[in-house]
Design brief:
single chain; 269 residues; alpha/beta; Rossmann fold; eight-stranded mixed β-sheet; 12 helices; 8 strands; 41% helix; 16% strand; globular; binds adenosine-5'-diphosphate; binds magnesium ion
């Protein structure tokens, strides 16, 4: 049976779709059978980031309506043959899918995959419930700014109401900017601690290359630049391998990042 994760956040635009695509690719590269489910309809949909938008025949709405089975609606990645996407529909609204539909779909797909990652919309509405209810673990994405952290904290509260235990909720810090660290635009101790009460499974620097890769429709994990390792580290941690968080620094030439981490860890212990 697949291990099912929801990738979620409080604020939009923090990198959920990018992370879903790249961690999915990294897991698939390691040989796992991976299914990504797009539970969000946004500007940069999962299909576009994966570069499979022209291959979509059916969407999740066809599955909900009973036109096709979940498996029949899957789109296979061009390069990674063990990576599949269940696409969102561009014309449907979130109200056309219910949490029970999602649970049924995920249960059926679970048999054929090692990992299922569900890309969630931001916020706390129906779309979030659809994405969170069929999963057993959550990756909460936040940027290191205070508004993003407090929104993430709110989502953590919601996930707990859904029955997620603290062990099932992991945090990824995305778009860390060395300049921000220097300017003193740091999080308050309380904000950091409220997040650090949970395990951090990834720290990703802000990188122009991520944006360029998104625009090309080639997940950066398939490109082999320095930031690739950050997504691979997350994939390894998801698989239960011990990869110290300090490893996430090694990919980056930025000194500022190092001080950011020292600050983070220094306060913790
Ligand atoms: N580490 C990063 N560095 C720079 N840009 C990033 C990074 N991660 C994501 N982005 C960019 O941020 C924007 C929003 O990312 P996206 O994954 O669509 O967020 P979400 O799904 O949370 O709305 C995209 O243009 C994406 O390329
Ligand atoms: Mg998104």
């Amino acid at each position: 049976m697949a291990k099912v994760f929801v990738v979620t956040s409080g604020k939009g635009g923090v990198g959920k779709t990018t992370i879903t695509a790249n961690v999915g690719c990294a897991l698939a590269k390691m040989g796992d059978r991976v299914c990504l489910i797009d539970a969000d309809i946004g500007l940069k949909n999962l299909d576009v980031v994966l570069g499979v938008e022209n291959r979509i025949v059916y969407t999740i709405i066809d599955v909900v309506n009973g036109n096709v089975s979940p498996k029949e609606a899957l789109v296979r990645h061009k390069i990674l043959k063990n990576l599949f996407l269940l696409p969102a529909s561009q014309i449907a609204t979130k109200e056309m899918v219910s949490p029970d539909d999602m649970k049924r779909i995920v249960k059926e797909l679970s048999k054929d995959f090692d990992y299922i990652l569900i890309d969630s919309p931001a916020g706390i509405e129906r779309g979030f419930r659809n994405a969170a209810s069929p999963a057993e673990a959550a990756l909460v994405v936040t940027t290191p700014e205070i508004p993003s952290i407090s929104d993430a904290d709110r989502v953590v509260g919601l996930l707990e109401n859904f029955g997620y235990s603290d062990d099932d909720i992991k945090v990824i810090i995305n778009r860390i900017k060395p300049k921000m660290v220097k300017k003193g635009d740091m999080l308050s101790k309380e904000d950091i601690e409220s997040i650090l009460a949970l395990e951090i499974v990834g720290a990703i620097p802000d990188s122009e290359e991520v944006i360029a890769a998104t625009n090309r429709g080639v997940p950066i994990v398939l490109d082999g630049t320095y930031i690739t390792k950050n997504y691979e580290n997350i994939a390894q941690r998801i698989r239960g391998e011990e990869v110290p968080l300090e490893e996430d620094l090694k990919s980056s030439p930025n000194k500022g990042l190092l001080s950011f981490f020292k600050n983070l860890f220094g306060r913790k212990g």
